[in-house]
């Protein structure tokens, strides 16, 4: 028995990843549910906080999760079309307006429920985030394409960047209030983001330039980007910068340096599948049932309010941005996921000495609900928009 426990302890993560993969394949075959929703269920059930055999997460697993997240974010950033955003600025206007109204509404709800001003500000900022990593995995799994698909992806990236910006600024105020050090407050907010964006932009220009004179295949280009993303996440993690901001900027700049990944390398192939399983298991394993239970009713209320604001704002701007109101509503539904972004932002805050998880129990409840339901909502939106590729039929 002792030896069995030792084996389970040493091989907990590989065993869990295998279980999550297998259950995801079965669920997708039998129910057509998104695989990543099943990964989340497995991670939550087997987490140490639920008396599962997964060990508590540490700095090493957090770094691996950030690398996994970085690879998915690079894919998102690489698909952002800046020319489209310039010719159709209403998409950016939609993102800013949606984020602003979600922030104001959630802040008002939190104050109404007698939460402190700082907690209300932090929860409002995090509620504006979407999860590009979740959305890109659903898109790749469903092989979807079209107006709803592209707008959901672009809005999720823009929303996440705005959420990181506002969250860092408010986090700076938290540090200032607790330490009295103005430099810490400045460093943890705008300077961090400018430095992160700068590092990502420099690498986005450098790597494609270095690849051009070499006689490399497209597969080698994909490998070069993979190695760069891993190095970029490790560097920003070590320097206490923002991996989210840096990798998104890297992907956006790299795309516009005209180095093209073929469709066969979309999602980084088998590596992308593996890191997706680990990432979504990790995120769910960070959530404790006690925290979820403590904030479930307020979290559910905020979740409904957030989704209503999304649907109304995106639908209002739909005609101006060139789509129907119906498709605008579907875009709002497709951008429901948010859990990956917020949990990793909270982890980065904890890594910098600001532990907010216990104070934000409604957010933990939202994270669990959207970790499981978010991919389902995105999948439904893409199907209702008729943008999902037909499955291959066996002959």
UniProtKB/TrEMBL annotation:
Q: In which broad location class does this protein mainly occur, judging by the first location in its UniProt entry?
A: membrane
Ranges in a coiled coil: none
Please give, as recorded in its UniProt entry, the membrane topology of this protein.
Multi-pass membrane protein
- Subcellular location(s) per record: Membrane
Q: Which residues form the Cation/H+ exchanger transmembrane domain?
A: 17-378
PANTHER family, per this entry?
CATION_H+ EXCHANGER DOMAIN-CONTAINING PROTEIN, NA(+)/H(+) ANTIPORTER-RELATED
Instruction: Write the protein's name.
Output: Cation:proton antiporter
């Amino acid at each position: 028995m002792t030896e069995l426990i030792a084996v389970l302890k040493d091989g907990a993560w590989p065993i869990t990843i295998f279980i999550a993969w297998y259950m995801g394949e079965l669920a997708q075959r039998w129910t057509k549910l998104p695989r990543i929703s099943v990964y989340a269920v497995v991670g939550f059930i087997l987490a140490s906080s639920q008396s599962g055999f997964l060990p508590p997460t540490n700095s090493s697993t957090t770094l691996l999760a950030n690398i996994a997240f970085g690879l998915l974010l690079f894919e998102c950033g690489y698909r952002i079309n800046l020319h489209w955003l310039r010719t159709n600025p209403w998409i950016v206007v939609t993102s800013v307006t949606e984020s602003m109204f979600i922030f104001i509404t959630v802040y008002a709800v939190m104050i109404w429920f007698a939460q402190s001003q700082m907690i209300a500000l932090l929860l409002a900022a995090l509620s504006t985030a979407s999860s590009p990593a979740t959305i890109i995995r659903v898109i790749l799994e469903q092989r979807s394409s079209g107006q709803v698909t592209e707008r959901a992806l672009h809005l999720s990236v823009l929303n996440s960047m705005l959420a990181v910006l506002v969250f860092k600024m408010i986090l700076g105020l938290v540090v200032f209030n607790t330490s009295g050090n103005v430099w810490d407050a400045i460093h943890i907010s705008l300077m961090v983001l400018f430095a992160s964006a700068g590092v990502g932009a420099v690498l986005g220009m450098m790597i494609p330039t270095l690849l051009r004179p070499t006689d490399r295949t497209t597969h080698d280009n994909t490998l070069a980007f993979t190695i760069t993303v891993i190095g970029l996440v490790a560097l920003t993690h070590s320097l206490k910068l923002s991996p989210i901001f840096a990798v998104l900027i890297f992907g956006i700049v790299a795309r516009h340096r005209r180095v093209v990944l073929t469709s066969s390398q979309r999602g980084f192939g088998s590596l992308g599948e593996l890191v997706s399983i680990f990432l979504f298991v990790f995120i769910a394993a960070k959530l404790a049932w006690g925290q979820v239970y403590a904030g479930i009713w307020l979290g559910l209320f905020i979740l409904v309010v957030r989704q209503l604001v999304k649907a109304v704002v995106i639908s209002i701007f739909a005609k101006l941005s060139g789509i129907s109101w119906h498709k605008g509503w579907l875009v709002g539904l497709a951008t429901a996921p948010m859990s990956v972004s917020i949990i990793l932002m909270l982890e980065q805050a904890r890594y910098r000495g600001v532990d907010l998880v216990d104070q934000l129990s409604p957010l933990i409840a939202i994270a669990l609900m959207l970790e499981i339901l978010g991919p389902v909502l995105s999948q439904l939106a893409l199907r209702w928009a008729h943008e999902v590729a037909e499955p291959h039929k066996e002959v």
